[in-house]
């Protein structure tokens, strides 16, 4: 099962791109994350976005409750934040490999803080004890790994990626010679 929490990057991009282009980038990145999720579980894709008054913590709790509604329910829960310009099959394959190897948790970190992917093999209640803003903070990895050590959770780490959230991210993304034309067109001034 995959859950795509709502994407909060558009505000940072709007300063550079304007509201209209930032919205178009948001839609494109969301569609790409959804397409990546469907490559592994074509039928079991679930969407969850923030509702008024809710935060990422509440979205994660709702996703866990949906994934494991009863004790003994099983199957991985993989949550994608649609922040990456490109999703590679290796992102999801590595998360699933971590879970298959016995990890309870697999994290896909972003350079400037937060995650692009969070995979759970089972419910981990300690995750919901973290401060609600943990998921986008520069020290998100340290906080999450500290919890894993405290709760004796086996954690796997995926390759760190650059998200597309800020003006600096736009510049770095445009410097990538492998950037596809569709996204390049939206990002070029």
Descriptive notes:
The chain is 41% helix and 13% strand. The protein has 7 helices and 6 strands; from the N terminus they run βααβαβαββαβαα. It has helices at 10-17, 19-38, 56-67, 89-100, 140-150, 167-174, 181-187; strands spanning 2-4, 45-47, 77-80, 105-109, 115-120, 155-157. It has a 6-stranded mixed β-sheet, with helices on both faces. A hairpin with a 5-residue loop joins strand 4 and strand 5. The mean pLDDT is 84.
Instruction: Provide the succession of SSEs.
Output: EHHEHEHEEHEHH
- Proportion of residues in extended strands: 5-15%
Which stretches are poorly predicted, pLDDT < 50 over at least 5 residues?
A: none
Number of helices: 7
Mean pLDDT: 84
Major sheet summary line: 6 strands, mixed
Q: How many angstroms separate the termini?
A: 37 Å
Q: What is Rg?
A: 16 Å
* Coarse shape: globular
Order of adjacent strands in the largest pleated sheet: 2-1-3-5-4-6
How many E-type strands?
6
Q: Which structural class best describes the helix and strand composition?
A: alpha/beta
Instruction: State the helical fraction.
Output: 40-55%
Features of this protein?
alpha/beta; 7 helices; 189 residues; 6-stranded mixed sheet; globular
Task: Briefly characterize the structure.
The protein is an alpha/beta fold. It has helices at 10-17, 19-38, 56-67, 89-100, 140-150, 167-174, 181-187; strands at 2-4, 45-47, 77-80, 105-109, 115-120, 155-157.
Structural topology:
Elements (H helix, E strand, L loop, with lengths): L1 E3 L5 H8 L1 H20 L6 E3 L8 H12 L9 E4 L8 H12 L4 E5 L5 E6 L19 H11 L4 E3 L9 H8 L6 H7 L2
Parallel strand pairs: 1-2, 1-3, 4-6
Antiparallel strand pairs: 3-5, 4-5
Helix pairs in contact: 1-2
